[in-house]
Amino acid sequence: MSVIEPYLSNVLAVFWFICCWAGYSRYATWKGRSTACLASVLHLYREDWMRRMLLRENRIADANVVGNLERNASFFASSTLIILAGILTVLGASERAVSLLADIPWVQSVSRGLSEIKLLGLALVFVYAFFTFSWCMRQYNFAAVLIGSAPMLGERHVTEQERNAFAARAARVISMAANQFNFGLRAYYFGMATLAWFINPWFFMLVSTGVVLVLYRREFHSDVLEVMVYTPTQAAESPKEQAA
Q1: Rg of the chain's alpha carbons, rounded to an integer?
Q2: I need a labelling partner for 11 at 20 to 30 A (CA). Which of 70, 103, 142, 244 fits?
Q3: pLDDT at 233 over 70
Q4: Is residue 38 helix, strand or coil?
């Protein structure tokens, strides 16, 4: 029983980790449809951005913004490859890594095989992150093409309905790219939680739960969300401002 117990606790920890990650992703998507969150509010701003872009003759600034967003995703994709290279290096020297961890207090003593499984699990998290960021980059490329094909100001054969449809379509593509970027960042968060697995599985479960709370707080109850949602009204202005 003493031999089987560590494996059971690790299996339970992995199951809890998957439930936290997949469960929160599904919950955030479901709740974002009816509650203001960073993703839903930013999508509204992107729709405004695309409608205003159609009123400008020069779209260089808009293309530069999309290029900057793509470079952010490219940075994380490159960083993910470096992290994966480091994990594979440690995997090749797992015996030394196990001996170093054994000297740290509160670290559960495990076999070399289990340590390699943990490293492979960590690598899988960042492999997912790499594919997510690379797909995000491609979608920003698609958005740049859409901006290049946007109808020019004053084109008579383009109706207002077609302009609104284009703005909604372009904003949707940019939001899809941003969602992929958000998924990649979540993978980084949960990748950091996976590091706690090397200490012991119970701490791994605790940190995974903490990551969910942090993500929920930032996406649904952050200060920046309150600022973006808040719109001053005439009634909220002071009498002096109204008189001016």
Answers
A1: 24
A2: 103
A3: no
A4: helix
